[in-house]
Amino acid sequence: MGVQGLNMGDTIAPAETLRLAELVEQLGYRSWWASEHVVLPSPRVDPSPSEPDTPLLDPLVSLGFVAAATTRLELGTGIVILPQRNPVVLAKQVASLDVLSNGRFTLGVGAGYLPQEFAAVGVPFAGRGQRTDEYIDAMRALWDSPAPAFEGKHVSFSDIDAHPRPSNARIAVGGASDGALRRALTRGNAWIGIGTPEETAANLKRIRRLSAVTERPDSLGALEINIVATAELDASVVRQYEDLGVDQLIVFPAAIDMPLDEALAKLIALR
């Protein structure tokens, strides 16, 4: 079981982040995921997830801080809005975080869905799916190729090298569109979905349907299924997710109506 959402809201202060990181690891959680929005629409309009004045730490900076306070906890972005990032710079940041966390980092990526955010960072909203695919391929070239080179519509490079290389370059793909599911199958080590057991069952059925007509590279291994749970959890609901083949549930403990420490302990007891 993993936690998400602790790099935002009332839990972003250094002392509170350190305390929670130590507590989450002590309780036996597997992972800690950090969310991203560089900016939010103001005033808030659908489908924006939060009010515009919600404090939200950059996920890579936040995870670097958490990495220094933990030794076993897996770390991930849930997710980075990839087309808004420079893939060459991000590849270096990922490699750096991989080294400093001793290989505990997974880069979770998504294509994004807020036009206002894309406009603010100067990236076209249209074509963001293609840009996401290309950026993943470019980063893989930097991490895996003995002589990194890439030629695409949005990024190109050659006659360069970049070290250190990550020891564990894992990518998790978020989203439930057909494009996102194909991206997970063709480019991701894992998929991050969101939903109830019923919604998860429907999305896993779609993944199976797409996998029948989509070639998955052997190097990626089996697709790990991570689900951000939106159902109210008890032991029977957790079992429903498990019976569907979910490898890891990710939860928002801050959303539970009780003190955060109690919520964390309650959730981990459901495993």
Report on the architecture of this protein.
The protein is an alpha/beta fold and 271 residues long. 39% of the residues lie in helices and 16% in strands. The chain has 9 helices and 11 strands. The strands form 2 sheets. An 8-stranded parallel beta barrel has the order 1-2-3-5-8-9-10-11, surrounded by 6 helices. The chain has a two-stranded antiparallel ribbon with strand order 6-7. Helix 1 packs parallel to helix 9 (260-268), helix 2 (59-69) runs parallel beside helix 3 (87-100) and helix 5 packs parallel to helix 6 (178-187). The chain is globular. The mean pLDDT is 97.
Task: Give a concise summary.
The protein is of the alpha/beta class.
Beginning-to-end CA distance, first to last residue: 7 Å
Derived from helix and strand composition plus strand pairing, the structural class reads alpha/beta
Helix fraction?
Answer: 25-40%
Averaging pLDDT over every residue, what do you get?
Answer: 97
**Could you say which overall geometry the principal axes of the C-alpha atoms support?**
globular
In N-to-C order, the SSE pattern is EHEHEEHEHHEEEHEHEHEH
* Sheet with most strands: 8 strands, parallel, barrel
Radius of gyration: 18 Å
Number of strands: 11
Strand order of the largest sheet: 1-2-3-5-8-9-10-11
Low-confidence stretches: none
Number of discrete helical segments: 9
- Strand content of the residues, in percent? 15-25%
